[in-house]
Amino acid sequence: MKKKILMVLLATSLILSSCANNDSKKEKEDLPELNIGVMYSADIIPLAVMQENDMDKKNGFELDMEVFSSAKDRDAALQAGELDGVFTDFIGVCMYQNAGIDVKITGSTDGDYQLVAGKNENVTSLDECKDKSIAISENTLIDYSLDYILEQKGYDSSYLEKVVVPKIPERVEMLSAGKIGMGLLPEPFATIAKNDGAVLLGSANELGLYPAVSAFLQSSIDKKSDVISNYYKAYDEAVDYVNKTDVSKLEDIIIEDAGFPESLRGSITLPEYRKNTLPKTEDLEKAIKWASKKQLCSESLKAEDLLVNIK
């Protein structure tokens, strides 16, 4: 009799355990997904940390961070409805609107663009660089950021000779080989160039420009506002974690998930990441004005119509 009772209790325990496991599995499977398209850069490090430490799941959703090798592929996925949102920039959002893709800015990221001169240019400041060649991508944030930096320093856009080189790795190679005098580069490419001897002359963030943003389709905002709100809670948690953690303890994540080359191990520096906030309306207005002059968006586009505060 005792053996029968023990067997019944054991069977009951196994059933209850199985039910609990199934419930746990179901609960995990039922977490809403948030699909965000990004490209390798320093500003996706909080997302990588968020995933690595399950901060998304702790906040009631599952982050699917999809890394693209080109902006064209990322934008195609967004237009096809395969993504809820993207890490992009002021000019990118203007162009989305012009293409009929209703994307709204819901936050800022900490992507910077560093102005560097080649190792053989023998310059230490922008004042010494008149008429030097600089590799850029035309009608993009790089182009806009360069004009912004020049304006802040008291020069017009013709101060440097702009040479269109669409691919960033090619710009770095040309800079290293002395085929181009200067470059305006995001991370990790800026650090790669500086490690090769390039001289830092300034950056967009240093001059108060934070043009990199997180943005979501209006349709995703309508359907997933609670999920996006939880995403920003997890994002702020990840920012706190990154800011308080020695970079040496984050290098594996930075290299494996954020696209930094192994050769930078031991020399990686990170910015002081900011918790999520909307960009300044006046900064976005300046970018829209520049983009409309380049016929990248309508003159009637208003900054306040592109900003959505997710609470």
Whole-number tally of structural domains: 2
Shape: globular
The CATH topology of the largest domain comes to D-Maltodextrin-Binding Protein, domain 2
Q: Average the pLDDT over all residues and give the rounded result.
A: 91
**Would you report the number of β strands?**
10
CATH architecture of the largest domain: 3-Layer(aba) Sandwich
Structure overview:
The structure is a single chain. It is built from 11 helices and 10 strands. It has 311 residues and is of the alpha/beta class. It has 2 domains: 31-111 and 210-305, D-Maltodextrin-Binding Protein, domain 2 (3-Layer(aba) Sandwich), CATH 3.40.190.10; 114-207, Periplasmic binding protein-like II (D-Maltodextrin-Binding Protein, domain 2), CATH 3.40.190.10. The strands form 2 sheets. A 5-stranded mixed sheet has the order 2-1-3-10-4, with helices on both faces. Strand 6 (133-136), helix 6 (141-152) and strand 7 form a beta-alpha-beta unit. Helix 2 (45-52) packs across helix 9, helix 5 (90-98) packs across helix 11 and helix 7 runs parallel beside helix 8 (189-195). The protein starts with a helix and ends in an 18-residue tail after the last helix.
In a nutshell, what does this entry contain?
This protein is an alpha/beta fold. It has two domains: 31-111 and 210-305, Periplasmic binding protein-like II (D-Maltodextrin-Binding Protein, domain 2, 3-Layer(aba) Sandwich); 114-207, Periplasmic binding protein-like II (D-Maltodextrin-Binding Protein, domain 2). It has helices spanning 2-29, 45-52, 55-58, 71-79, 90-98, 141-152, 168-177, 189-195, 218-244, 251-257, 281-293, and strands at residues 33-39, 62-68, 85-89, 103-108, 114-117, 133-136, 161-164, 182-185, 199-203, 212-217.
